[in-house]
Amino acid sequence: MKKHLLILLAVFWVLFGGSQVKADTGSGLEVAPEVPTKKVKHHVVVQVNFNGVDQWKGVFGNIKNLKLALVPDGGLQVEIVTHGKGLELLTSKDPEIVAQLKALSDSGDEVAACVHTCDSHHLTSKDLASYVTVVDSGVAEVVRRQEQGWSYLKGGSGF
Question: Which of 47, 105, 109, 128 pairs as cysteine with 78 (C-beta 3.0–4.6 A)?
Fold first, then answer.
């Protein structure tokens, strides 16, 4: 019991550290600087370029299962990177999706949107939730993370 409590406290300490400063791009969007890698054992970047509630439920289920399996094994940092059609769900008003994205952010995980997709959809930072960071390129963010040793998960498998 004591061991589980210590692990839980360590996980919360790792997940709730740091803050981000955003840089203005001049297009109504702010591109966030690179998110620092947390001192955890596992890092997973999840690429999302689809639209659909069933697919999002699959992504949330995968992340939940990853956390259950990997947090006790040294911690987990997740970054969801949206681009293309995937951005549409970040502007969703569906309370279940909004709540799950907010919960991920609140736990220290990242939710990112591609600036090019935002521009092509005429979205500004006011159209996105406060927990969404904007990256200079969704696909470049995925590549950078993989080059940093992050595991890759293609989101979209529905239940």
Answer: 109
pTM given for the model: 0.77
Tokens coding 119: 């521009």
Tell me which DSSP letter residue 44 carries.
E
Domain coordinates in residue numbering, the chain:
2-154
C-alpha span between 115 and 17 (Å, rounded):
25
Angle at CA of residue 134, ends 89 and 61, nearest 5°: 40
Long-range contacts of 13-16 (CB under 8 A, 24+ apart): 14/38, 14/39, 14/40, 14/75, 14/108, 15/107, 15/108, 15/109, 16/108
Nearest to 121 by CA among 144, 93, 90: 90
| CA 9 to each of CA 13, 44, 77: distance values in angstroms, whole numbers, following the listed order | 6, 21, 16
At residue 115, the pLDDT reads: 97
Q: Return the CATH number of the domain spanning residue range 2-154.
A: 3.40.1260.10
48-57 confidence digits (pLDDT tens): 999 888 888 8
In one-letter notation, the amino acid at residue 8 is L
Instruction: Taking the CA atoms of 92, 60, 158 and 147 in sequence, report the sign of the dihedral they define.
Output: positive
Cα distances from 8 to residues 2, 12, 30, in angstroms, run: 10, 6, 34
